[in-house]
Every structure is written in structure tokens, then in C-alpha cells.
Write a structure and sequence with these properties.
about 230 residues; alpha+beta; three-stranded antiparallel sheet
Length: about 230
């Protein structure tokens, strides 16, 4: 048990030294000297590699964002982001999730650009629903609910609503009206046709209009029909 604890402590010290670019004495003393590369130089190699890899990943995921910055500003933003948000995941895509919120604080005019880039990443990697019903299933009387497709993403960027969705393997964007956003949020967790009809009645939407809208969104893969589990 003691060995495991010591190993965990050493791993923590190494991770912290790499993230913080420090050389704690209680870690340096544990690293054997192996000339010609000294302990401090070896730590610096790992530290530099960590920051380079994190920076490359963020630059790649938010390339449009960085096209609007000079190199000095970009380097500073990347350094600040990595220092304030040390990686706690092995998945670099998950690490990028924090960047739009960070850029909203330091460069708010680029927030929507960063947010759209992250939404595109999420849409691209989302799995298709395994329980989606086909038209034949519905025509043969299968019971279903209508809900937001797993690859669709809804976000607010200041006063604007943004929808990202994947249609025919291409990520596309839409700026929904307040009424459309309300309907999409209503359908997010899945609704029956009866619930959809009640929503239309409460919001003074005609049956024809709401059926036309939902049918179009199903074709675009913004929504899908999910079979009810018995």
C-alpha cells in the first residue's frame, strides 16, 4: 500500500512540475542523473513538450479563432489558458471544451467563433442514435417520440441562439428564431405526438405549421423518431 501511495505522489509531482514549469526539490531529488542530459534539462524537455502539444491541439481545434490574432497575442492566450486550465483528461478533444468560456473572458468578440468551432467538433464526434425508427416502422404503427438528434447542439451566444447539426455527414449551422428555439428545447428530451400537439395549442401554432417544421427537421437530422421502450 505504501508503494502505491509513493508512486501516486511521484506521479502527482511530475504532472504538477510539467504543468507549472517548476522544479520542486522533492521531485528533483527523486530523479537520477543520467548524463549528458541533466535532471533540470530533462524536466524542461517534458515541460516544453506538454505546452507544445496542448497549444497545437487548441490551435487546430480553433484555427478560425487564431486567424484573427497576431502571433504574440495568440501565444499569450494559449499560455494563459493552459496555465489556468491544466489538463485533467487524456482526451485532447475534451480539453478543448473549456476554451470558448476562456476566450469569452479574454477576447469576448471572438467568443461566437470559438463556440461554433467547439459545436462543430461535438457534432462531428457524436454517435448516431441506435434506436432511430425508419419511415416503414412508423407506417406500420410503431410507437415513438420525437427528440433532438444526438449530434445536434443548441447554445446561446449573448442574445443569439445557435443550432449546429450534422446532415449527410456535414456539420451545418442555423440561427433559430426564438419560436424555433423554444420548440427545439421542448423536444430536446423527447416528446410524444400528443405532447407536441399540446405545445402547438399553447403557443398558438397551427397543426400544419408544427408538423411541417418537425418533418423538415427530421429530414435534416436535427430531430429523429425514437422508438419507445416497452
Amino acid at each position: 500500500m505504501g508503494l502505491r501511495k509513493n508512486l501516486a505522489e511521484v506521479q502527482y509531482l511530475i504532472q504538477k512540475a510539467i504543468r507549472d514549469k517548476t522544479h520542486p526539490a522533492n521531485l528533483v531529488d527523486l530523479i537520477a542523473e543520467k548524463p549528458p542530459i541533466g535532471v533540470y534539462h530533462r524536466l524542461k524537455i517534458y515541460q516544453d513538450a506538454y505546452f507544445i502539444r496542448m497549444s497545437e491541439s487548441i490551435r487546430e481545434d480553433f484555427s478560425i479563432c487564431f486567424e484573427n490574432m497576431d502571433s504574440e497575442k495568440a501565444d499569450k492566450i494559449l499560455m494563459d489558458f493552459i496555465q489556468h486550465n491544466p489538463s485533467r483528461t487524456r482526451n485532447l478533444a475534451e480539453y478543448s471544451k473549456l476554451f470558448p468560456e476562456f476566450i469569452q473572458i479574454v477576447e469576448p468578440e471572438l467568443y461566437e467563433v470559438a463556440l461554433r468551432s467547439w459545436m462543430e467538433i461535438e457534432c462531428s464526434h457524436a454517435a448516431d442514435p441506435h434506436d432511430r425508427l425508419l419511415l416503414d416502422d412508423i407506417e406500420h404503427g410503431a410507437d415513438f417520440i420525437v427528440r433532438l438528434h444526438p449530434a445536434a447542439r443548441l447554445h446561446q451566444a449573448q442574445a443569439k441562439s445557435i443550432l449546429a447539426y450534422r446532415s449527410q455527414d456535414q456539420v451545418r449551422f442555423m440561427d433559430p428564431s426564438p419560436a424555433d428555439m423554444s420548440l427545439l428545447e421542448f423536444l430536446a428530451q423527447g416528446r410524444s405526438l400528443d405532447e407536441l400537439a399540446e405545445f402547438a395549442l399553447q403557443n398558438k401554432i397551427s397543426d400544419e405549421e408544427i408538423m411541417s417544421t418537425t418533418s423538415e427537421w427530421i429530414k435534416l437530422e436535427i430531430l429523429f423518431c425514437q422508438g419507445k421502450t416497452k
